[in-house]
Please model this.
Amino acid sequence: MPQQLPTRPCLVIFPAAAALTLLAGCGGLDRIDRRIDKLVFDRSSLLGTDAAPADRDFSTEAVGNTDRGAQLEETPKTSNPDASELFYVQSEAVRLEATSVEQRLTGYYTDALGMPIDAPEGGEASSDEEEQAAGPQFPEGMMVLDLEGVLLQSQQTGREFLDAQEDYILAAIALLRERHLWGPRFFNDTTLSVAGQGDDGAFDSTLRLINELRLTQRLPAGGAVAARWIVDATEQLRSSATEDYRQSSELVLEGDIPLLRGAGSVAREDLIQAERDLVYAAREFEEFRRGFAVSIATQYFNLLQTVASIRNQQSQLINLRQTLERQQARQQAGEIALFELSITESSVLSANNRLQSAFESYIVALDSFKIRLGLDPSVPVALAPLTLSLNDPVATPSEAAQQALLYRLDLQTSRDRVLDARRRVSNARNNILPDLDAFAEVGLPTDPDEDEGGLAFDPDSVRYLAGLRFSLPLDREIERLGLRTSQIALERSLRTFERDRDQVVVDARSRLRSIEVARFQLILAERDVEINERRLEEQEIRADEITPQEFVDTNADLLEARDDRDAARTNLRVAILEYLRDTGQLRIGRDGEILPLPGMGQINEP
Model:
């Protein structure tokens, strides 16, 4: 009859249980997250910033549709009914007066903005403290955002920003993975097998249980060492032998070290590159934060410019309506002809049309902005008046270019990638060398004469093996092609760096000139506004002598001048921010705020 395995095989099971316990103790995503947070914080600190991504929760398995059946469907359901199944409600607007249509439009705009459209968007913020404090936690209220709030919101919920954060985190994960490969690694393999041999219809079956617990460690100069504990337990399930259970174990220490090909720093290439890549990722993330802040601020400026344009058009429409009332009185008095009155009437209609179009454009742009900030488009948002004040920088084009060459993080990465390419050329040359490896193995078994060795290792039975392994480089064609490829890649990286360097110089000089152009345009636009305002005042004083066409032309010129002035202000603000960004001098705080530089003065004007 087959015998039962005795209690001694616990020696076999123990290593596996110990390994599982060790892995369980070292597991857990919380520990992984802490290591990632520390790593990205350390790398960001090297750049002089603490704006490293942290406190991100990636446990999204329970978010959204968790129906396992829907996930496994090979043909997901599609909603696309036939035309006969749809119902179209025809609007009655074609039979309504223009006034009724305008009222409906006004209702749409009021709902979209969360306030009456006659309330100036972007005007003075309400003094009510509750409205001032409105935010994402009060979705029913009005969210009032100034530039600082917009930048903060973009870093909290902006999808582009979160994507950039995740790129940075993924680079940190890649480094942690590579570091783990270079640390001590534990493995445990348990193999249970049954073997049989037939003899005249009778089978001798053997049950064998082998457990191998091993520890491996890569060496900095190449190669690896390993320590193994192997436990082998065998039992004859059908045997005439008296002792049908055998157990032995052995401790093995082995190593394999390259002396030529694969020896030296080339062995750590993946680790070296992963370490450098995380620095590049830190730079890229910081560059993104700066560029993203400028982009968000520019979009915010443009929205405020649209608000100012709407105000200008509202003011023009008021003036034109007042002019129309005067002209109607003059026409009734016989002072002007009816066709002259129609000029003003047509201008009022055109101005009203442009105003409605401006409202629609602003609402679409505002909704797009809310989407970019990661906000629900249905949440009413008001833009607070701008308080950003940036003084024009004083610098020469050569000074601006020099600052960009020193401070631009992307240019530093481009320069360092040239070093990466040179290192790969050296590694490719090493790959052509012949293989010469030294290897050794020492084993300490239990007494081979004992059926049950247990843990009683026998020093007299020590075995060892040592030697050299040499392989002639008879076929290195692929490696030589790899060397030529890496040399070409080096040439390309050099040209890329030179192009990036030259482009940085051109961008810095261009941004400085753009500030001067924007400032000059603003000065001219402000003078143009003053001229046309005086012109309109004089015409109103001499209203009885001015023709309707002159009134219309003056209002149109004043509107254009005001729009040009507001556009010039926006262009100047954007030009200064772009100058700071492209010269590497823009500094963004952890919450996205624009930090003032020494000598810049106050960021917020009184």
Observations:
- The radius of gyration is 39 Å.
- The beta strands are 143-145, 185-199, 202-218, 224-236, 245-258, 381-383, 435-445, 463-471.
- The longest strand covers residues 202-218.
- Confidence is low (pLDDT under 50) at residues 1-13, 119-140.
